[in-house]
């Protein structure tokens, strides 16, 4: 077998060994072409020619500096940083190299490192106005970082978003700032904005654990718990020590399990157990507004089943406070108000529902509440007689007999003028009530909420005494008297 040295090597005829001087001339030519493309803002072509120049002369600091500037324009700040650092390694007096390294650090959110680079520029060129301004920019970013840290600790998420927006004006490529802003947007309930920021990061870096966590957080707060868990698990795969993702994943699983247990108990009719399970679920994560709104509404539904109407109304109100668009909570609360005969409040809730969703069902509910409200503002003849709304004809007659005798003016003839006036009024109301409720047609109209004033016999013209006489058979010469059997005691006697 022949030695390597004995082998003939065929050289590519196009390959030529150039002298150092020729290499430099070739590299300069590539650099000039790169400059021309850079001026035209064709940064991709500029990058290609600067790379060719570097391949020819890898020890020339300015070539790395130029390619760093191009990479910055292409938003490839990490690659630009490497080139800028290589430039100043080759030439520590290369002012533009230090300036570009500082800008890359600042764009990536490392303001301390950026300050050091800009200070180095000022050592080389004390009057450099660009470096002076960049020092101020770096100081400003550091101040906004500090303010954001304090704001986050105080849960002042609006302040954090404001600070991050200001910091990102100088640190436009800083994923850390963007993720913090996205997380705070999620905490403020601004989920589409938070999702957009996180998605932008993931398009550039699909393995970013923080961005995956924020995506999951938005889904979690929008009550898409299964999908949220998937993102939390993915975030933990990328960053096993991500404590926020771990805690959120645990809370999401616990919340889902407790809510499902509550739903199961409710369906099985175990209302006390369901109420307890929903209460326990509400303690898991106070920050999960949308899920907690549903839990409050569910607990309100249980409360209504347990006839705890005030408690049910309070829970529905809490649900609405958390989510003002939650139609189901308005409907549940309105029904509770109806059950309590608080019709004005019921009408208010049904109006809100109908304004939001103009369905036939919601229109019917609103009209029914409005009718009950109208009826509630009239005299309640059932209450006047002290009978239930489903009272029979005999029950109505018995009730009239009792109330008419109780309030008859003759019975109170020795009372004060004020008492006599009040009892006379009640006696008349009892007569009105009996006149309406003992007449099937009038009763039907009254129950349906129609105006009785339209009847031929105007309700204001009837004589209560005539009704009394007719009921007790006082006409045709038969009389009736109230006689005293003792102080304040009377008995009724037919003649």
TrEMBL record:
KW Transferase (keyword) present: no
Function in brief: Acts as a co-chaperone regulating the molecular chaperones HSP70 and HSP90 in folding of steroid receptors, such as the glucocorticoid receptor and the progesterone receptor. Proposed to act as a recycling chaperone by facilitating the return of chaperone substrates to early stages of chaperoning if further folding is required. In vitro, induces ATP-independent dissociation of HSP90 but not of HSP70 from the chaperone-substrate complexes. Recruits NR1I3 to the cytoplasm.
Source species of the chain: Esox lucius
Superkingdom: Eukaryota
Statement: the UniProt record of this protein carries the keyword Cell cycle: no
Stated name of the protein: DnaJ homolog subfamily C member 7
GO terms under cellular component: cytoskeleton; nucleus
Entry keywords, A to Z: Acetylation, Chaperone, Coiled coil, Cytoplasm, Cytoskeleton, Nucleus, Phosphoprotein, Repeat, TPR repeat
Chief site of localization: cytoplasm
Localisation per UniProt entry: Cytoplasm, Cytoskeleton; Nucleus
Gene: DNAJC7
PROSITE patterns on file: DNAJ_2 (PS50076), TPR (PS50005), TPR_REGION (PS50293)
Swiss-Prot/TrEMBL TPR repeat ranges: 27-60, 95-128, 209-242, 255-288, 293-326, 327-360
Sections of the chain in a coiled coil: 340-379
Entry-linked Gene3D superfamilies: DnaJ domain (1.10.287.110), Tetratricopeptide repeat domain (1.25.40.10)
Domain J per the UniProt entry, residue ranges: 380-450
């Amino acid at each position: 077998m022949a030695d390597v040295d004995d082998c003939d090597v065929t050289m590519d005829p196009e390959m030529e060994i150039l002298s150092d001087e020729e290499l430099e001339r070739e590299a300069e030519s590539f650099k000039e072409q790169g400059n021309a493309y850079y001026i035209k803002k064709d940064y991709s072509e500029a990058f290609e020619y600067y790379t060719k120049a570097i391949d020819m002369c890898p020890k020339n600091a300015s070539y790395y500096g130029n390619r760093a500037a191009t990479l910055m324009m292409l938003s490839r700040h990490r690659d630009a940083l490497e080139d800028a650092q290589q430039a100043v390694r080759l030439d520590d007096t290369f002012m533009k190299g230090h300036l570009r390294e500082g800008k890359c650090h600042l764009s990536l959110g490392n303001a301390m490192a950026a300050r050091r680079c800009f200070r180095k520029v000022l050592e080389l060129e004390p009057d450099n106005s660009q470096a002076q301004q960049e020092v101020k920019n770096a100081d400003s970013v550091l101040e906004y970082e500090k303010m954001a840290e304090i704001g986050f600790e105080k849960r002042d998420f609006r302040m954090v978003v404001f600070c991050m927006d200001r910091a990102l004006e100088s640190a436009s490529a800083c994923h850390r700032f963007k993720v913090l802003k996205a997380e705070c947007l999620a905490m403020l309930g601004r989920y589409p904005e938070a999702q957009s920021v996180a998605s932008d990061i993931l398009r550039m870096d699909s393995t970013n654990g923080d961005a995956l966590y924020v995506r999951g957080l938005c889904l979690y707060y929008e009550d898409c718990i299964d999908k949220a868990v998937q993102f939390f698990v993915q975030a933990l795969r990328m960053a096993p020590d991500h404590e926020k993702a771990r805690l959120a994943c645990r809370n999401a699983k616990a919340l889902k399990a407790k809510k499902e247990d509550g739903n199961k108990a409710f369906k099985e009719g175990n209302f006390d157990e369901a109420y307890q399970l929903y209460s326990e679920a509400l303690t898991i994560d106070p920050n999960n507004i949308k899920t907690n709104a549903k839990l409050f509404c569910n607990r309100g539904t249980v409360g209504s089943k347990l006839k705890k109407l005030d408690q049910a109304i309070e829970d529905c109100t809490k649900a609405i406070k958390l989510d003002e668009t939650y139609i189901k909570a308005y409907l549940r609360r309105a029904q509770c108000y109806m059950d309590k005969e608080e019709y004005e409040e019921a009408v208010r809730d049904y109006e809100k529902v109908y304004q939001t969703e103009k369905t036939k069902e919601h229109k019917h509910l609103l009209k029914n509440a409005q009718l009950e409200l109208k009826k509630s503002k009239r005299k309640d003849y059932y209450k006047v007689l002290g009978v239930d709304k489903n009272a029979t004809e005999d029950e109505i007659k018995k009730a009239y007999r009792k109330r008419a005798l109780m309030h008859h003016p003759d019975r109170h003839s020795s009372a004060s003028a004020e008492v006599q006036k009040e009892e006379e009024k009640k006696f008349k109301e009892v007569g009105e009530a009996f006149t309406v409720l003992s007449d099937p047609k009038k009763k039907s109209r009254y129950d349906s909420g129609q105006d009785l004033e339209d009847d031929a016999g105007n309700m204001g013209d009837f004589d209560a005494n005539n009704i009394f006489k007719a009921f007790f058979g006082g006409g045709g010469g038969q009389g009736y008297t109230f006689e005293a059997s003792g102080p304040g005691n009377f008995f009724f006697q037919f003649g």
